[in-house]
Amino acid sequence: MGPLQKWVSTGDLLPDAVPLDACKAGARLRVLGHADLVCEACQRSKLGVNKAVEAAVGKVVRVLEVDSTDACARIQVDVGVLAWLPLKVFEPVFRPGVQIRLTGLTGKATLNDSIGKLDTFQDGRWHVMLDGDDNSNKVLSVQEKNLELLDEAVVREHIETPELLRLCTDDPRFNDMCGVYTHCSESVNGRRMWKKRTGKTMVLYSMPSGRRWAVVQDLEVAEGSQEVRILSKDHGGAMPNAVPGWGIKAGGEFQEIPRVQFKEIYDGGGGDDDGGYHTSDHASSSESPRRSQQGEPTNRAAAWQSREAEEIRAMQQMMQAMRREQMMQAMHRDACQQM
């Protein structure tokens, strides 16, 4: 008789779950690049598989929240594309073969911005094989803090841009600004922007300097003709929900306003209320991960349709106002000619 053989299922190939301390809100992780393994893990965890799950395969994602009881995490794949995945499908962002760029080197500063490929990890450092004729066959040992993904800017734009933000403050001067802001497809000054859902039209955008976020009324931000209601401290590239503080400009000086901040929210934010200061990081939901997984694509499609309908209505109202203005001008010209 030959040696005993054992049938190996797809599930047997799944790695151990990442430690909980590595899988926390705000952390970056990489989803396994094998779709069959990801689907098998979701089925074992009784999580649905939708387009968001399929889009996450092999991608670097951002952790939004963790359910330690069911050993799964909610992640952002792209703006408005969220999914629940079991912890077993995650691995570290940096692994052998990943293309990287060197950054923050001090002893060998001339090598900053050099491009290379990760080889092996040993004694807390990565061995990097550098690209280029000048660095041919050159291997450098660096700490992980001196590495960034080759497509870092693209990854950051996709996984760190929140779809929904809630402005929170208990300062009565800014009550009309409180509420939920929705991410827009348009951009101003080459950066993302968000529009307030209800009440007065408010726009959150990046100022021309590219160093501060600001909130203005109406949509004239491109011309810079609107008065800035509030603005952030120098954000250093961070999204509005991660800036260190907000305030106003008075006498040419920045004056910080306490307890003003934008909070990232999920699931539509639990309504469009324009209330005061909220302390939760996201809207609580009574739905389990298993149920919400199935509903997310439908909810996003409904949100997109509603947003499109609102934009069409706004355009129609603007056209009607323009026609009325033209009629009034024509009537005024006729009256002047008859005098």
Textual characterization of the structure:
- This protein is of the alpha+beta class.
- The protein has 3 domains: 12-91, SH3 type barrels; 99-156, SH3 type barrels (Roll), CATH 2.30.30; 161-270, no CATH class.
- Helices cover 22% and strands 31% of the residues.
- It is built from 4 helices and 19 strands.
- It has helices at residues 35-44, 51-56, 152-160, 289-338; strands spanning 28-31, 60-67, 72-78, 81-86, 90-91, 99-102, 115-122, 125-130, 139-142, 147-149, 164-169, 179-188, 191-196, 202-206, 213-217, 228-232, 246-250, 253-256, 260-265.
- The strands form 3 sheets. It has a 9-stranded antiparallel beta sheet with strand order 18-17-16-15-14-13-12-11-19, with no helix packed on it.
- β12 (179-188) and β13 form a beta hairpin.
Keywords for this entry:
alpha+beta, SH3 type barrels, nine-stranded antiparallel sheet, 339 residues, single chain, 4 helices, 3 domains
